[in-house]
Write a structure and sequence with these properties.
Layout: E1 3-11, H1 28-40, E2 47-48, E3 57-67, H2 74-83, E4 89-97, E5 107-118, E6 131-133, H3 139-147, E7 151-154, E8 169-179, E9 188-196, H4 203-215, H5 223-230, E10 245-252
Parallel strand pairs: 3-10, 5-6
Antiparallel strand pairs: 1-3, 1-4, 2-3, 5-9, 5-10, 7-8, 8-9
């Protein structure tokens, strides 16, 4: 009997051409499906909650998949997958899901984090995970501008050119600039976190580029309201590079209590409090 599972996956996207399978390229989806072939001897399609771009990372990407014959526990599947995955891709959790569960269709919200280093010396380790800005930036101005993005808006101005969506209206639930540990050597380290009911293609990176333009004094705080109203991508700021972006969390409605074999039942949140993130199954 086939079983459907929900996976929570962390990965360092530095060496990968994004989530989606592409010919002659290493991708996250491709590595997962390759591992599943080794385990099940079947070709199993893995659906991610979203297609992260080349170089983008994830703390808690969520995926759905259906396996024709898996009689062991969901935890056994998690452990077995990790033995066949490279060290920069880890299945953090696995649980039985309803047969109808679909990682994209059932998603009710996501949270992204974009990391910055303002001035200071390039860090030999962090440079893979932060956009290093070599000029001064007014972080308080960025915060004021970020506040103006909260709520339901038409975010067409932050959608990558050529994208095709039925609607460009989304609701941003939170948009904050958070200070990280800073020093004279490492400069001012901070992060922009954005949570919404959905995102357009490159929306977060385009928001970050626009906030940075405001922070460096190229535009005023009020300008971001004009950009929103214009619905014109060419008027917004540049697209921030991918390496600073992390998919932080994906949200779903609660599953029924009893799914799959009794031995594989799990209760409570999908993730623990490691890395200051958690999978919230209730609507945020």
């Amino acid at each position: 009997m086939s079983r459907t599972f929900q996976l929570t996956i962390a990965y360092d996207g530095t060496q990968y051409a994004g989530w989606q399978i592409q010919p002659q390229k290493f991708t996250i989806q491709g590595m997962l499906e390759r591992a599943l072939v080794k385990l099940t001897k079947d070709r199993v399609h893995v659906t991610g909650s979203g297609r992260t771009d080349s170089g983008v990372h994830a703390v808690a990407q969520v995926a759905s998949l259906t396996i024709p014959n898996w009689n062991a526990s969901a935890e056994s599947l998690r452990a077995a997958l990790n033995t066949h995955l490279p060290p920069d891709i880890v299945v953090k959790a696995c649980r039985d899901a309803p047969d109808s569960f679909h990682a994209i269709r059932d998603c009710v919200g996501k949270r992204y984090r974009y990391q910055l280093q303002i001035q200071g010396t390039r860090n030999a380790f962090d440079f893979r995970y932060r956009w290093h800005l070599k000029f001064p930036v007014d972080v308080d101005a960025m915060r004021l501008a970020a506040d103006r993005l909260i709520g339901p808006h038409d975010f067409a101005c932050f959608q990558a050119a050529g994208s095709d969506r039925k609607t460009t209206v989304r609701t941003i639930r939170d948009c904050v600039v958070i200070d990280d540990e800073s020093s004279e050597l490492n400069g001012h380290r901070c992060a922009i976190e954005v949570e919404a009911d959905g995102f357009l293609y490159n929306m977060v990176r385009n928001i970050v580029g626009t906030l940075v333009d405001i922070g460096r004094g190229k535009q005023t705080v009020q300008w971001i309201t004009q950009v929103l109203a214009s619905k014109d991508r060419t008027l917004a700021g540049p697209t921030a590079p991918p390496h600073g972006l992390f998919l932080q969390r994906v949200d779903y409605e609660p599953f029924p209590e009893r799914i799959g074999p009794v031995s594989s039942q799990r209760k409570g949140p999908l993730l623990g409090d490691d890395e200051n993130t958690h999978q919230r199954l209730a609507e945020s």
